[in-house]
Design brief:
The protein is of the alpha/beta class. The chain is 37% helix and 15% strand.
């Protein structure tokens, strides 16, 4: 910490507050003189809904990333300007938290902007597809809101559309700052401690801008544990913005970030902020204290729960309003194809503070927001830790059996208030992801049965499991296939895992991944047939075929020599059949072990053999002309 820089920062804040006070003629600076418009966007991964797989979930990655920044902005709006406010003078305007009636009426359609509407939930553009209509809607949104900052969250398959959003924004609003984050940025940009080296992958927007594959349409990128880093960046933007709230120059924001660092600003987490100015790239690595996922503000604080999952049917057959919950951020396995592995994400972070009670309280909060179900987005439910699963299920079961407020833990009483809250609590369902080995190799079978019974008692009505492949030649390369023995091959473990789950009365869905190491037409045929046998036996309620897609930071991407060949930036890539029938699949970024003819075969054979259990069952008829 530099005392001189701390004094400089203090003088800057005081002078800006004094000028705002003079302009408004009031010691209590009105909110209207402080706020400036912002817009967040989730980059889609599709160009058409026809024949394609739809991601049915809320954009939780975006909500979670915004959680600290939104919470601090809401506090600043309520507290007023001053040194004790997270945003001391100007402040991003995220609006107000949704009213209960708005939460209960929210649907999955595009959120329509209303100048008289100041709800946080409407500051998100979530188009689900990127086509001419979405681009027109986005331009209209920009012209109406005129945001000073656009924040885009993207995974790798959505990066090309994130860059298109950035390009459109710079055309419509040249002075709007564009900030990009999300899993794709996490995987393509990192700072090596002790070496002062910024490592940027070929598919990073930073690299693509530098070598002019795309134009200079992005101002800032945030990677890593970005919750607090994004908040820090927005505070720097606010301090750098002219008091007329017209613009903040990237160079001035860089100066403020540098000043905050030199003045001793320290934030939690491990993250990286990169700024692009006309003559340089500026890197701001963050190495702060570890934080507990349970201590982050609730992601749904400012946002309505919009998704409805058919796997959670209500009594009338309609899909339940489904929240998403994450109690751990990564997978403890390190499969070479997976971008959720702890080795890729940078470590495993979990709910640490009274985890079961905190998760149950969070569920009660979401129930008060209208949730009738929840899906745990953890790669493995509670990281596969049986004592934590049991503790959570026991506490949730006790809460669901409560007859009145006195039977609820104090933390839950504030949320379960109305009759509808009690109805949703008692009928609450949840789902989660598990692995074959969690059910068959890592625990005694009696322990597995007890855990599954506890989950069912607590309201678990759906489990999702990655089968990946049914071919021994393929699964011998996959890390999640642990404790493998010749007398108990993978396909035997898959069947036993499904039998145990079904014995507990819990339906199962699965993902099957084609194109892994060792894949051939023979192993494809074997997997299609073996999964078909599981369906015939009533062991699978849903089977989702997927094509291995190269993610920038995975080992298989490097092993296949694809790290410097991934095109996640060109907007003109033709997303055509058969690729459109699989999540994330685009020409040029799918497994080199598969030909286009193989992909057609996978699409057609799974549709024929798996029937309606496949999540997209109607095969495209290829022209023979």
């Amino acid at each position: 910490m530099s005392p001189d820089q701390l004094a400089r920062l203090d003088r800057l804040r005081k002078s800006r507050l004094a000028e705002l006070t003079e302009r408004t003629g009031s010691e209590e600076i009105p909110w209207d003189a402080r706020r400036y418009p912002v817009l967040a966007a989730l980059a889609p991964v599709m160009t058409s809904t026809e024949g394609e797989i739809t991601y049915p979930g809320d954009p939780m990655c975006l909500y979670a990333a915004l959680s600290v920044a939104v919470d601090h902005a809401l506090r600043s709006a309520s507290r007023g300007a001053g040194p004790d406010s997270p945003f001391s003078d100007l402040c991003p305007d995220w609006g107000t938290v949704p009213h209960r009636r708005d939460r209960l009426a929210a649907d999955h359609s595009l959120r329509q902007w209303n100048p008289d509407d100041s709800v946080v939930d409407h500051t998100v553009f979530d188009p689900r597809v990127w086509d001419d209509r979405s681009e027109a809607d986005f331009r209209a949104e920009l012209r109406c809101r005129r945001p000073r900052v656009l924040l885009i969250s993207t995974v790798s398959p959505g990066n090309r559309y994130a860059l298109e959003m950035a390009r459109v924004t710079k055309e419509e609003l040249p002075h709007c700052l564009v900030v990009v984050g999300g899993r794709h940025i996490d995987e393509t940009m990192r700072y090596l401690p002790g070496t002062d080296e910024l490592v940027v992958e070929y598919s990073s927007p930073l690299r693509a801008i530098d070598d002019r594959r795309v134009g200079p349409v992005v101002d800032f990128l945030v990677a890593g544990e970005g919750h607090y880093a994004l908040d820090l960046l927005l505070r720097a933007v606010s301090l750098a913005m002219d008091l007329d709230r017209g613009r903040a120059d990237p160079t001035d924001v860089v100066d403020i970030l540098d000043l905050l660092g030199r003045a001793g600003e320290r934030i939690p987490g491990s993250s990286l902020i990169c700024a692009i100015t006309e003559d340089a790239v500026h890197a701001f690595p963050v190495r702060g204290p570890a934080f507990d996922l349970a201590d982050l503000p609730s992601p749904y604080q400012g946002f309505a729960i919009r998704s409805r999952f058919p796997v959670f049917p209500l009594a009338d057959g309609s899909p339940a309003r489904t929240a998403h919950l994450t109690v751990s951020n990564a997978c403890p396995y390190h499969c070479d194809f997976c971008s959720e592995a702890a080795t890729v994400v940078g470590g495993l972070k979990r709910f640490g503070r009274d985890p079961a009670a905190t998760a149950v309280e969070r569920i009660c909060e979401y129930i008060s927001y209208g949730a009738e179900a929840a899906f745990f987005d953890d790669s493995i439910f509670w990281s596969g830790t049986f004592p934590q699963i049991r503790a959570f299920c026991d506490q949730l079961s006790t809460v669901r059996r409560a007859e009145g407020p006195d039977d609820l833990p104090p933390a839950c009483r504030r949320w379960i208030v109305e009759d509808d809250d009690w109805r949703r609590l008692r009928g609450f369902q949840f789902g989660a992801q598990v692995t074959v080995d969690l059910m068959t190799a890592l625990h005694k079978e009696d322990d597995v049965r007890q855990v599954l019974a506890a989950m069912r008692e607590a309201g678990c009505t759906y489990l999702y499991m990655g089968i990946e492949s049914m071919a021994t030649e393929v699964m011998q390369h996959v890390h999640k296939n642990v404790r493998r023995t010749a007398d108990r091959p993978w396909k035997t473990k898959v069947r036993r895992a499904l039998e145990l789950i079904l014995e507990a009365g819990i339906p199962v869905g699965s993902s099957v991944l084609f194109g892994l190491e060792g894949e051939t037409r023979e192993t494809i045929e074997e997997t299609v047939q073996e999964v078909g046998f599981l369906i015939d036996g009533g062991l699978l309620g849903l089977a989702s075929p997927n094509i291995l897609t190269y993610h920038p930071a995975t080992a298989i991407t490097r092993a296949h020599g694809m790290a410097d060949r991934l095109d996640y930036h060109s907007p003109q890539v033709e997303n055509r059949p058969p690729y459109v029938y699989f999540e994330e699949a685009f020409p040029g970024v799918v497994s080199r072990r598969l030909t286009e003819e193989d992909i057609w075969f996978i699409h057609e054979s799974t549709a024929k053999r798996w029937g309606t259990v496949r999540n997209s069952a109607v095969p495209e008829q290829r022209s023979t002309v």
